[in-house]
Amino acid sequence: MREYEPNPIRVLLVDASALTLALLKRALALVTLIEVVGSVRGSQEALALVASSDPHVVCVGLHLQDVEGALFVRSLMERYPRSVLVVGASSLREGDATTIFRMFEAGALDLFLEPLGWRSEDVGSFSRELTSKIRLLARLDSLPDFACDSTVGTIPLQALPAVNMVVMGVGLGGISALREILAALPVDFPVPILCVVHVHPVLQAQLPRWLGEVTRMPVQMATHGEMPMPGSIYLAPLGHHLLIDAHGRLATAAVAAGILPAHYGRHGELPSILVAMESVASHLGALAIGVLLSGTGEDGARGLEAIYQAGGYTVAMDEASALVFDLPARLLELGAVRHLLPCSVIARALQTLLGRDEGEHVCGQVEAGPSSASSEMPAWTGGAGATPVAAGDWRAGEGILIVEDSPTQAYKLKRFLLDSGFMVRVAKDGVDGLEQAEHLLPRLIISDVSMPRMDGFTLCRQIKQDARLKAIPVMLLTALTNPEEILEGLSSGADNYLTKPWDGAHLLEAVQRVLQAGEGAEAVEGGIEVTFAERSYTITSSRRQVLDLLLVTYQKAVKQNRELMDNHLELKMLNSRLVDQAARLEMINQSLQAEVSERRRIEAAQAETLRELQVANRELNDFAYIISHDLKAPFRAIGSLTSWLSSDYADRLGDEGVELVKLLQGRADRLNGLIDALMAYVRVTRLNEELQEVDLNRLVQRVIKNLKPPEEMEISIEAPLPVIRFEPRRAEQIFHSLLENAVRYMDKRLGIVRIACVGEAASAAGVGAAEEPLLPGGDGWWHFRVSDNGPGIEEGHFEKIFAVFQTLQARDNQESSGMGLALVRKIVGKFAGRVWVESQVGQGSTFHFTLPKEP
Q: How do residues 577-633 score in pLDDT, each as one tens digit?
């Protein structure tokens, strides 16, 4: 990793979607230290831009206009190795997760998914996440050197006394390494393996299937309470940490605040390596092996330190093979990492530590720190000519030299050839390959084409021009993606060609064919001059070599044609689905249009009904006002007349006449009271008073004084009432009506009435309704109550008592107008409040009402 961050960081954007490219450009435009050198949709244009602009990071979408993202990444890594960030949308389609994993296999390092349903104001937030990933990748050097077999020492690695579990932590750039390690482990691996992987949540569910493609060991999400079995691989479930309990069973804990250290925030909602390794260290101690792969950060470092402190064995991928080597210096100084090993030997080292590979040798690097006879590791010696892994002594003219700069590809090819019975050496590039060829004189050279310092074509020419080496057959691993590359291969004089990705059976067949051909093939005398695209090529290949190349090219074309046909068929199927979906959407759209039209009709009808109700209500109020006003004068005259008769003609009327006059006087007074109550009810909506600051404590005391309750009745305020902003007369009418109601119907000698402000209203039971009505919530409302210990009200009458002119007693038995509670509801409702009652017969009633703080 570079010690400094490039400034500016050059970034190339590659994706089939113009919308995605525009979004990424907009997000990166907010960051001054990033320079977008281009945004293209096709692979060839992208490769040309990489060559001309030399970007530090290439952001690649899942699909390009002409190829899949995985194919482009593989081609990019073969020709111009770069840090690759996979970009896509959060709404992954079926098969997209597989495509992403294939891109990781090809060399991609990290993943960024744009948020689902993003809006323009969201660009800044995900720009920060995208920028942080790009800045990290920009600090990476080109692909690390491969720790080849020629550097192995002679000290054997011996088995540990006892091991019960292996726990592995995997970070940025490490999942492909994990896949290679698991692929190299035997199906009867003697202990369970716990894997904690820092991977994007959308990929975590597909991780068992992807890893399971390369191993016969079962790969599964851990189940809480399950006993881990030998030869099984367990992954942390999505959104959970993976641990073991005191009984050795698996445990999963949901990701929650407080479990992880503060540094964990950059990983997001991912399982913690620290949590897993701490639990293993706590319960297994020295019986555990901890392994860290690439890019685990402080989370992995602290976890491995916990294994070390508990006496367990610790291994980490070395700097040469880790794509992101971020082990803290303090960990290395402490000696907490017992051994730094190349990725290519970690699997065999684990088998040896577990007693499955006793006596074999591995290449590695010994760190300063504790050591013992049971933990010796090979020293890092360097140089050529050392004994390869499990290949026996090298004999000139018999072995195969692999020239490959990709550690993963080199290890894969070496492992296949070793298993096929060949002696194998590995060189890390063309320059190293030429030096080793001169020293080793191999029987066959298999070389990659795209390599730093010296490519495969140049290496082949150098070998064919060397009198001592020209008889050694050379096989090139190439993509053969364009005519220039085919002509370059012919002019280099290679003996055979194999396309990437190679198939084992085809590779073995080609190797055997080249070895059997021996030196029988001769180059064309003087060569053949060929001009293509204004460039001349001298073809010195024999007829057999030309035929081999053409056959390989033809096979490549057939394969690509088959893939194109498959893609064409898939596109037809997708297009058919799109047509069906469009038809369904059209039907849904028509249905929605009909629904919208119906709703508009209903809304228009409701508006008309509301207008008619408003007119009717206004006319009703006018009518009530006129009636009450016109009736007031006649009843006042009747009252005056009965009073005159009672005072001036009492002696003439007799006792019976006086009683009748008093009865008439009472009826007139009652009607007069009803008219006054009706006028007060109508004025609630007709007249609006000025809002004022009303001290409810003074107001209620004044109402109590005017009511003149019996001396034995106690009316009190439970706590000081607030000062509210309201219409003073309306507030007085509310409390007067409720207190008058309590006094009038009190049936006990010692009556008790309590007034209180409960607090701020959030919700309340409706007036006589079974369901709760919606109230404007929380801190914008006052909640009051008036309670008494009177006769109570039956639940069936809860609604009736709030109606106009309604009472629960016969008119002749009480003097109430029946308008008090109706008036309360009218006033409270005018200000959008609610009023309701709670009561039990024989125990009393409590009337609740709410008023707004800001009317």
A: 888 888 888 888 888 888 899 899 999 998 988 888 888 777 767 776 676 666 666
Q: What is the Cα–Cα distance from 668 to 661, expressed in whole angstroms?
A: 10
Residue 146: closest CA among 388, 529, 405: 405
Q: Cis omega before residue 8 (within 30°)?
A: yes
Residue 194's nearest CA partner among 161, 160, 219 is 219
pLDDT at 402: 93
- Residue ranges per structural domain of the chain: 9-138, 149-375, 400-483+496-520, 552-683, 688-852
> What is the biggest distance separating any 2 CA atoms in the chain, rounded to whole angstroms?
161
Two tokens at 504?
Answer: 């084992």
Q: Where are the beta strands (DSSP E) in 99-255?
A: 110-114, 165-170, 193-197, 219-221, 233-235, 240-244, 250-254
> Comparing C-alpha atoms, which of 458, 456, 348 is closest to residue 402?
456
Tens digits of per-residue pLDDT, 227-248? Answer: 898 889 999 988 889 999 988 8
Q: At the topology level of CATH, where does 688-852 sit?
A: Heat Shock Protein 90 (3.30.565)
CB neighbour list of residue 534: distance below 8 Å, 6 or more residues apart:
none
- From the list 277, 253, 38, 251, the residue with the least C-alpha distance to 167 is 277
Residue 581 DSSP symbol:
H
Q: Pick from 267, 85, 97, 262: which is nearest to 169 by CA?
A: 267
Could you identify the residue written with the tokens 């030998």? 230
Contact 331, 301 (CB under 8 A): yes
Query: Tokens for 359?
Result: 């006596």
Q: Which fold has domain 9-138?
A: Rossmann fold (3.40.50)
Tokens representing 638?
């009747």
Q: Is 638 exposed, middle or buried (0-12, 13-18, 19+ CB in 10 A)?
A: middle
Cβ atoms < 10 Å from Cβ of 16:
17
The two domains 149-375 and 400-483+496-520 share their CATH topology (first three levels equal): yes
CATH T-level fold of 149-375: Rossmann fold (3.40.50)
Q: Measure the CA–CA gap between 432 and 145, rounded to whole angstroms.
A: 12
What single letter denotes the amino acid at residue 744? R
Question: Which pair of tokens denotes residue 188?
Answer: 């009867």
pTM over cut 0.70: no
Q: What is the pLDDT of residues 259-278, one digit of tens each?
A: 444 444 444 447 889 999 99
Cα distance between residue 64 and residue 416, in whole Å: 32
The label of the residue with tokens 């101690």 reads 285
Determine the 3-state secondary structure of 476 from DSSP.
Answer: strand
Q: Residue 298 contacts by C-beta under 8 Å, 6 or more apart in sequence?
A: 261, 263, 328
Q: What is the sign of the dihedral through the CA atoms of 206, 211, 215 and 220? A: negative
Fold (CATH) for 400-483+496-520: Rossmann fold (3.40.50)
